[in-house]
Amino acid sequence: MASNPPMVVARDIHKRFGAVEVLKGVDLEVELGKVVCIIGASGAGKSTFLRCINHLERPDLGYVMVGGELVGYRRVGRRLHEVKERELCAARAGIGMVFQRFNLFQHMTVLDNVAIAPTLVRRLARGAAEARARALLDRVGLAAKDGRYPRQLSGGEQQRVAIARALAMEPRVMLFDEATSALDPELVGEVLDVMRSLAEDGMTMIVVTHEIGFAREVADEVVFMDGGVIAERGPPAEILRAPKSERTREFLARVL
Amino acid sequence: MTRTPEADTAGASSDPLAGLAPGPPVALRHPGRWVAGSVVLFILVWFGYTVVTNPNFQWPIVGHYLFSREIVAGVLVTIQLTISAMAIGVTLGVIVALMRQSDNRLLAWSAQAYIVCFRATPALVQLIFWFNLSALFPLITIGVPFFGPDFIAVNANLIITPLIAANLGLGLCEGAYMAEIVRGGILSVDAGQREAAAAVGMTRAQTMRKVVLPQALRVIIPPTGNQIIGMLKYTSLASVISVTELLSSAELIYTRTFETIPLLIVASLWYVALTSVLTAGQRVLERHVGRSHTDAPAGRVLPFRLAVINNLFASRGARLG
Q1: 8 Å CB contact of B193 and A151
Q2: Under an 8 A CB cutoff, do A152 and B296 touch?
């Protein structure tokens, strides 16, 4: 089956924090509309890798392409050059990200949280941005709470606002960095439901998660990271039921 | 041991609450407080009596000068100097605080050096330094630096008037303190929000203006109020370099008339009055700005706070709230 070029390509990503080499050469390809779940123990480099994709962390070596365009770099001759802030921001605007700790803007209403980036970054008119924000809030089931402030919402509601905020930029890919890890157990479901419906609508997603059930159900591919490299990857049925790698088996035995 | 019905009716011996008289418990007495209160009351009465009866306070003279032309002119200079020095201080403070955050080591280092130098020397010394700038640089020139030609050259004594020297001295000193206050405010905003802003494609400047500073303001405003009140009083230092503000207006009168104490009282009354006005204003502002979103009942917005913050940071076409 001759497919389109992948939506996300990460090549040989290396990242070191001081003496610790967190990423030791990670490669990943995600096709349009596919969902990749990255699992692994804490410290395996999952979050750092995800943050390299939208250049919140600058890889020491390697590069990322989203939609066929380099993120944070431009090719000049045989070398990659860092781009200016404006270009990096434009690239990031097309990559949605949802954080473990929600990171909503505390001084803005829910509606403003979702509407501000389109007005500032995309230069959308205020009315149009608000209309889009309302539609997105409706989609995550929070249309009635548009006038609230983040601290007046439960964790699950805050995370759904954060998803709406990312969607407001009409991203080509969504990154989820342990989006349910900070939530009380009874609030995890509502966030996973929103993520599941996004996947059903064909959003390309890279999901760092500890929710093995979600990975089994929604992922097109599961990637197991360990010690800064990808130890094993494949369809969820294969990786989660019959892992080949001993380290994957050990990890799954601990979390399941 | 088994309880018998007799034991229950026996009263106080077995049940401490049996036979209790109705009504509230008797409050504990605090004789020490009464003693301390009496001593303080005595001192206050004695002090008040002295103030009223000691003729050396010369209350009629205080009344005579309180609204005199010279004193009111001095009050106006004090207010003007407070505002202008504070404006210089706040502007410098924001710039220096942002420089300290810079990835550029030289910028961050020079901001740090400025803060250290200007916080480590007394404001009075700095004032006198600026006042005597002409001893260091007799001519102030605009031209090509180092060995190039000068286009304009002016006698430093003409530019550095006492008022300019006072503005520079107080403003630069204030800038160092304000820089630390602003920096504290910026650091109070969770770094995660900055990452979230970056992730949706906002530039660092947009993030600072729309996300960080509006929230930092809640932390910055209360201590800034204190700084303004402090500055009001620090302006009296300018009397040393012959700026005719409130204190030196009073001094000019009493060196003429030798009515030292009444004129110092006149100046003090004005300082107290101005400080009270500022304190009241600070309280109003804090009540609106310091209130956190958590305290607000669900669904209620805080119109004043948002209006203030939005107007401060509003830019064309991107106004929220």
Answers
A1: no
A2: yes
Q: What ipTM did this prediction achieve? A: 0.94
Q: Which of B190, B201, B321 sits opposite A92 (nearest CB)?
A: B201
A151 inside 8 A of chain B by CB:
yes
State pLDDT tens for residues A162-205: 999 999 999 999 999 999 999 999 999 999 999 999 999 999 99
Pairing status of strand B150-155 against strand A8-17: unpaired
- pTM for the complete prediction? 0.78
**Is A117 in contact with B201 (Cβ distance < 8 A)?**
yes
Q: For the segment B19-50, what is each residue's pLDDT rounded down to a tens digit?
A: 888 888 888 999 999 999 999 999 999 999 99
Identify the residue among B186, B188, B193, B200 best suited for mutation to test binding to A, counting A beta carbons within 10 A and taking the highest. B200
Considering all CA atoms of chain B, what is the largest pairwise distance in Å, rounded to the nearest integer?
A: 114
- Tally the C-alpha atoms within 13 A of residue A175's C-alpha that lie toward its C-beta: 26
Contact A116 B215 (CB under 8 A): no
Residue B8, pLDDT > 90, answer: no
In this predicted structure, what is the pLDDT of residue A101?
95
Choices 1.10.3720.10, 3.30.360.10, 1.20.1440.20, 2.30.30.240: CATH for B60-318: 1.10.3720.10
Min distance B223 CA to chain A CA atoms (Å): 20
Domain borders along chain B are 60-318
Query: If contacts are CB pairs under 8 Å, which of residues 183-242 in chain B contact chain A?
Result: 190, 192-193, 195-204, 206, 210-211, 214-215
User: Do residues B224 and B243 make contact, with C-beta atoms less than 8 angstroms apart?
Assistant: no
Q: Are residues B203 and A85, on separate chains, in Cβ contact within 8 Å?
A: yes
Q: Where residue B319 falls among pLDDT bands split at 50, 70, 90?
A: very low
